[in-house]
Queue: 4 jobs
Job 1
Amino acid sequence: MKKEIRKELEKIQEMTPSGKERAAWREHRDDARAAIDRAERTGAPGYARNYWDEATGLFSRAKEYAAGRSYRKASYLARKAGEAASRAADEAERVRSEKERSARAVLNQVKKSIDAMALKVPSDNRDLLVRKTEFLLEYSDLVSAMSLEQYDEVLEKAPELRKAILLFGSGLDSYGD
């Protein structure tokens, strides 16, 4: 009986202007949460920090206004937080794909350098074979970092590895003579 009365009271409250504002706040809050969750999944805290901070700041302020029963302001801020979170997600996806593309290009250059160097290594020289294997292991580490989306690490270490491979390969040119 009490539950039925409570439901009826809630329905009546939702018909009032403040009840409508509260319902709008809840709807915008849920939309903002979904947008913030999407932004977090796309890596916005790392790739689009400014947009992420804006979205979370607006959402926090919206919750503060809602706690003070200023549902109209809270609803507005929640809507703006959702928009900022969507921008953060879009920017994070753009930055991530750009870094991924750059890292793949650098890894392809390293792979070509390894392939060219591997052809020059004589099969009877154990020291040179060990060094070639070390290069292959370092390349394998970079491929693993790439699969873990550690693009900054790949972009930092791959050029150094490529330079070392090219230097080693140029030494092999004189070794064969």
Job 2
Amino acid sequence: MTASRPIFLSSCFTDPTGIRLRLRDRIQATIGKSKLSTEARQLIWMAEDFAAFQADSPLGDLEKTALCLEGVRQAECFVAVMTSRHGSRISVEGAGEVPTSFFEAELFEAALLGKPSFIFLLDGYEPEGRLAGLLKVLEPSFPNMDLTPRSEDEILRRLDRLAEHYQRPRWLRRLLVPPRLERLVDTQVSLRHRPYDPISSPPPLRFLETLSDPAVGRPDLGKVEALLDRASAEPAHQLRLTLVWFAIRALMGAPFDDPTCRDAVPLWDRAFRTWISNGAWYGLHSHFPMSCLAALGSLTDLRMSSIVTGAQRSGLPHGSLASEYYSIAKLAGHADRLLGLALEHIELAVGEAPDAAGNQFAIRGSILLQLGRTDAALNDFRAVADARREQGGPAYGEALSEFGYAMLRAGQPKRGLEKMEKGLELLQLGPPSGFQVRAMRKLALGYARCWKPVAALDLAADAYGVAEEIGAYDQMRQLGRLFAYLHKRRHPDT
């Protein structure tokens, strides 16, 4: 494990000649002219400070990467110092070396999380090769990136000022805190959403601005498949997304719209699908370039492309689009408009595959419940539960949990709690999952509404532990709101 610190410093360890980057030594040295103060230095996350990154560490590259990304996630801001180097490639067991470095992985995580970021180019260098290609790919996620060359002294002075900022009380540091998620999502919807025809067109948003990077080189598709296999086996959504990013970066050497790269199309399809399913639990709900919605736009382009034939060629993924718009609507101020769009997509999906045992009826039920059409929502959730009863196990448990929650919302708390408790019991027969955490969170909310505050708090705490274990950060965010709600109910005057 590594300690969390408010400032995460990312850079290559050496300069292009292989000599250790002097700036890192200057940051580590905490006394003397043009050096950071000792107090300020303790606010900066640097790999050199942790045993996990020493030469004799038994950890593999992927484990080290996970620790770095956790440092980025827990930090309040991200600082990157670039030369011309892309950094040392990461090696993944079973897939070998991937065209991604530790430095790139840290940039990727900061972009994914929308961290307040400060990216400096060290004077005397120019990004080239793979680093130049990476910056072009990630540019939409760093709109304020300024690659004006800076001297070591200037970068140190800026770091010192940043550290001073984080030495202040929290109420004095609001300028560097990202806006509330709800406000951010609302702004992105206003700026980037465009009307379109749900019957025949995908949403006007794509994954990043380019999915081609010649600097990566033609990928070894066997290694890409191994990366996606490894991602499927990982229990934590954060690490799954990282591995999928490794796969996507490799595939950028074989863009899916290139007729000479047809053999890469199935892997592109799988990479997008894996990104979407895990990104949903990670909380990538919005109109930004690495969101689930953007990935759905690119996946639709791929499946409707003229170079895709046979079973791979298909139309719009209406069910997934409906689910994503539903998730965005819960965060944005344009809820009714987005829920209406979600309902259009899900009605098209149900028309194509009217199977109550699948996810389509459950998605429609959630949308209808959010729109206040409670009776229609109950009918859908009841149909899903009936269709999955014989199947039993976690799938039936999920259906019971959602049906019970709808009953709770419909004013039937006793019957609703009974179904939710039974549903959670069945879900817990399987391994920890986002569905299990969601069921625990909703049952905790049910306990709170039925004046069982101790049971609600205990279950919410357990749910948070499971969510943290599997990297279900979207559920962690919602559990944070639940904790605030429970605290307010117990201490209404605070």
Job 3
Amino acid sequence: MEALQKDNKGEGENEEVRGEEIDRWERQDDEMEATEEDGEEDAGMGEEEEEEIGQEVHERRDVIDHDVNAAPPEEDEEVKRLIEAGNMEQLANLVLNGEGHRLIGQTSDDPDLQGFLNNVPAYMGKIRAVHEAAQEGHLRDLQAALDRRKFAIARDGSNSMGSTPLHVAILFGHTAIIRYLAGRFTETLQARDNSDRTPLHYAATMADNGHYYNLLLKLGADPTLKDNLDNTAEYYMKNPGILTHQDLLEEYGVSGEVANNMLEDKGNSPQRNIPVERSVFWTEEGRYLANALGDPLVRGLTEVANTRPSDPIAYLATCLYNYANTSRDVRNDTQESAMMITTGPPEAVGNFAAPPPASLDEDPDTIQPASDSPETALTSANRDEHGQSMLHFAAARSHGRNALFQLLQEADINVGYRDELYRTARDVAIQAKLPENIQDIDKWVLYMAARGETDKLMELLLEGYDHILDVEDEEENHIFDVVQRRNQHETMAFLQSIPSFEEKREELHSAIRRGNVEEMKSILTPEAGKGNLLAVAKNVYGRCCLHIAVLCQDEEMTRFIAVNFRETLRAGDNLERTSLHYAMALEKVEPLSTILIKAGAKRVLKDLKGRQPTYYFMNKSDILRLKDDEEAMNV
């Protein structure tokens, strides 16, 4: 739906409100990566039972599949009133509550609203896919379909229960799905069905010795919530005959015979659901193992389950090795930051910690991960769907002296990241009229330069950060003076090269916009690696040369850059959209996407909104606006 938004300033106030409602509906998506702790096996369900359940579920689906394509009621006064009022939020709630079929075939004179109505079947299909994956225990399918956060609590309207995906996952005993949904989307823990029962109420009926019940409590479920009969989940656990797992399954559409075979413990005592603590974790050895190895093992096993490598043992070993290295680096950085006292201006800090000798950084026994090794999630920028990091939020608020600088020391966030409005954290501080925050950010840049951290300054330059050379300390000493005083010759040479590098970058981007292939090739001709750096360098809009070539729909330029500078294929813009994301929204989608994919572009990479490139094939407006911006720059 975000694809339907319009930014025309002449629109009336009502249209702006509708745009905000569309925006809220659309922006609930998140980076839906399976990084949560979902490594447990599904609770003991045999293959025969699963097959039998699957047959019943598919039979039930056949009965309800007509809902998506069914015509709406001839007279649905409520829907008509909502459409006439342009109430996008309430219409979206109908879809999320499993009543999307009421909107099928409805029309509106408002183009934004009509665009939403046209997309209702697609939204219903996604919600249905999430529920099907939750039923069948297919975590990957669920993650693929769950590209909007609100789908995690959406109902599919396939039965009268009004259950959400977490309700369904508990009902069918899929532990990995339960861990993923409850751990990643905490709002699912409080979601209710049509009888006001939470997932914890469902878990209380399971004959699993309280395993799911305790799991949900640990993940944050509220045990005090009551259903429409004024009963808590604990009440059903202590009174197992009042509401049973079989009752819920039959209400869902599964036969009683199959229900009897699901998740039943060998014992059949009346108190089978009373929680039983696992004694191993009460021992000293158990507590040590849980604290020392629990998190890395769960993360590693989750990666193995999701990736399914050819050599799972070596793959797990690589995961654990990378986890240990990352944890060690984080501890070292924290200890180093704690030892630094920065009470005066940067140039008064006489003893910057010198970087370790190169020989200490080299590890001859470094394990080289396999080609299918995972990319650690700890290297992510931790930015939200609007491109903002914690630094953007911190820059918009006043703090005590040096507080923002200390945050930068501890978090080590790249200050060059831009949000969806192309603002760095420094830009946010300027708009908030907080000069002390601007000074702290400049102080951080000066601090890195004084320490000779040329690599980090290079990251800023490649990110398109444009406030490196104009930095001064509190005594108005220019960055060149401070670096020269510290005898950081390599850093000084780098700083001096920045103006010519930025000029070359702009010449390159301009040549691409003008369609001058020869000029582009001459600029990108490798000179001691400068061609590679220019290729991945982003401008103040977060776009590298491949982004621009794709927006210009120039196949020859796109092929040259993609083939010769493959690192550009993974380069993301201010919202981490790759060139393939761009290509999917353009007229020449087929030749451009073919070129990019053959060169090595990945079709599964998600942007900060959790969208894969294919999303923009149907929702083009965001990318088309970028295309218009690029065309305007060429005037």
Job 4
Amino acid sequence: VKSGACGTVVRNAELKIIEPETGRSLPRNQPGEICIRGSQIMKGYLNDLEATANTIDKDGWLHTGDIGYVDDDDEIFIVDRLKELIKYKGFQVAPAELEGMLLNHPSISDAAVVAMKDEAAGEVPVAFVVRSGGSQISEDEIK
């Protein structure tokens, strides 16, 4: 198993990666929602038809809510959660990607990105950063 990978799909199960908005299957190495189908997958939520319908589609695919991809060696990588995605002007923005960019800056030792409601854009990403020891980096320099 590669570093950062979750392994491969379990025996007797099918896995696909889809574009969350359209349901279109995506190719390898392209992140999307992880869906899984097989006899070992739950059949639904007890006494909650609505939650079941929101999780398992008519073809039996369980929509995990995880954003990930399958690489060329069939290894699965989870990179984010669908519900955590920031909806900015119709685009899905992954907080983890923005955090990764911030953490690559030598003056930043930690970062967290969350959504903030915005009338014009729907949501906008807001970053909270911890400066590296002694750094005087400013908000304008980070933008």
